[in-house]
């Protein structure tokens, strides 16, 4: 059998091309196959990023393409960083991020720990638990909007049963205080299974002999949990937080379906605010600068977090 990649490719090509291919090195053949993918990635990702950076220094408006475009330097960035409304959306996003990650980590790890104990019906319950993450955000948003309805929503009747409050007066997605928690509940319900699966993979990667050695040393279950289970699952847990943190920072469709950013602007996350600046107010240059600031923020935080994750994995 031919020993080089070029020889193998030549065998699978028409005779009039085989001679040319045999003259290529393995490195050249590899680049021939990889180059289209690299070019496509550059075209789809790098070019729009460069174009957005360029627009961020202008007063360009997409609804006025024939208007003369002026380069205004860092003025868009200065306006964004000093705009109190922008900081309110950042605050709403931080609230959403913190509480969704907190609940998903706690509940997801707990469910993974319970399922890992391998009880009767384990596979059935695992399938049921992961069902929410298989649904599209649009379906989940409509489903929970119905559940939150003051007159007929089952969620309101459940709260009324537990607290004694009249369900018709309970406005989960219409109340300034409760609306942020409404989207936290829905996102937690939908994506906790994702965290659970990653934690479950971590739990099942721990060798049994470690626990057996701990049993011989007469370590209690509580001590085994904190000295074996948690440290060995921590890299998986941190990975889940990284994935969910990035996804929730750019959360859009689910919140739009549930609250549309209201009431007022209490659930207007940065992604929703960015869309309004770009496609409702048509301040394209301003929105481009806004997008670059969000990109740098996410990229910077993710880079710091990945370094911390690598340090944990090296222990």
UniProtKB/TrEMBL annotation:
Protein's membrane topology: Multi-pass membrane protein
GO biological process: transmembrane transport
Subcellular location as annotated: Cell membrane
Family in the record: Belongs to the binding-protein-dependent transport system permease family.
Pfam families: BPD_transp_1
Boundaries of every ABC transmembrane type-1 domain copy: 90-305
UniProt xrefs under Gene3D superfamilies: MalF N-terminal region-like, MetI-like
Descriptive protein name: Sugar ABC transporter permease
Domain of life: Bacteria
PROSITE patterns recorded: ABC_TM1
Transmembrane segments: 29-51, 96-115, 127-147, 178-203, 224-246, 287-306
Keywords noted in UniProt: Membrane, Transmembrane, Transmembrane helix, Transport
One GO cellular component term: plasma membrane
